[in-house]
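Researcher: Let's do a round of design. I'm pasting the structure tokens now; please hold your answer until I've finished.
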């Protein structure tokens, strides 16, 4: 398969099985020079982040606690905003809210096993205040899920909103979550086609990859990840090939597919693929080049905020 071979070849060029400088923070049972996170992203158009870049992205998101900006049940009530915005989209019950909680380092999004729990657009500020005093350097938007048990009109309204944010130069990228086990569904394909037709920058993120990499009874480990990553590569390659074959005018999804888990980690507190995703958010907004870390909040940590999860 051409697309998959390209992903594998790119990894050989940019990150040959994670050979990096020796570090004292390697997980138990893994060679000190092995960068296992490098196996969880597949690059065609971009260069994978280095371990140092991932650490920077982690610090950017965690040094200052995220803040709930506002929620809205209608698209007309959303303020214009002053900082770059990234939005997260996905089918109901794809694990979007859980992923955003891991991304931001705080449980601000309400999670549920019942599909369609998110009923409003929820906006969060991350990265601390910027030079102009705005609440965050990036706005992260949690969109209601589409598909099963979602509002029928959301799909059309979401696309209108994204096109409008692109028009005023606020939308940096839309991240589309795909269930890694079930792959592309008809509703996913329809959304991705609309994003292309409207020339909206977008990127695919595979969620719940622990179900592919580890069985229910297996503990997450680097060795099991290495052993099963070929299946994940095949999944990513199939999705990439299918998207390339769509007869749709407009820019394709970014040739960078990320794989994440909100439950599995081989290092304490470092969930699989989350720092890759953080780096991609910074790259989308241009903040990966500025390298300005937020000041540490001495009174509030990312783990202890007064606000509870939004619905």
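Researcher: That's everything. Go ahead.
Model: Designed sequence:
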């Amino acid at each position: 398969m051409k697309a998959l071979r390209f992903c594998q070849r790119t990894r050989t060029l940019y990150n040959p099985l994670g050979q990096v400088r020796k570090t004292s923070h390697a997980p138990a049972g893994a060679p000190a020079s092995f960068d296992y996170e490098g196996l969880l992203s597949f690059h065609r158009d971009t260069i994978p982040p280095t371990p140092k870049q991932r650490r920077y992205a982690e610090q950017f998101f965690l040094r200052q606690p995220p803040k709930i900006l506002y929620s809205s049940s209608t698209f007309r009530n959303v303020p214009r905003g002053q900082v770059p915005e990234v939005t997260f989209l996905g089918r109901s019950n794809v694990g979007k809210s859980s992923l955003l909680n891991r991304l931001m380092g705080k449980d601000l999004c309400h999670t549920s096993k019942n599909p369609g729990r998110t009923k409003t657009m929820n906006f969060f500020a991350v990265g601390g205040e910027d030079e102009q005093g705005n609440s965050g350097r990036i706005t992260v938007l949690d969109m209601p899920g589409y598909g099963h048990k979602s509002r029928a009109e959301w799909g059309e309204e979401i696309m209108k909103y994204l096109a409008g944010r692109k028009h005023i130069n606020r939308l940096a990228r839309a991240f589309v979550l795909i269930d890694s086990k079930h792959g592309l569904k008809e509703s996913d394909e329809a959304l991705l086609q609309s994003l292309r037709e409207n020339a909206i920058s977008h990127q695919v993120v595979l969620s719940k990859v622990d179900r592919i990499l580890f069985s229910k009874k297996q503990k997450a480990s680097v060795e099991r990840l290495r052993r099963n990553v070929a299946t994940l590569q095949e999944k990513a390659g199939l999705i990439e090939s299918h998207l390339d074959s769509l007869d749709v005018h407009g820019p394709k999804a970014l040739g960078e597919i990320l794989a994440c888990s909100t439950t599995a980690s081989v290092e304490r507190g470092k969930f699989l693929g989350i720092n890759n995703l953080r780096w991609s958010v910074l790259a989308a907004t241009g903040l990966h080049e500025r390298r300005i870390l937020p000041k540490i909040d001495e009174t509030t940590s990312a783990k202890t905020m007064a606000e509870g999860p939004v619905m």
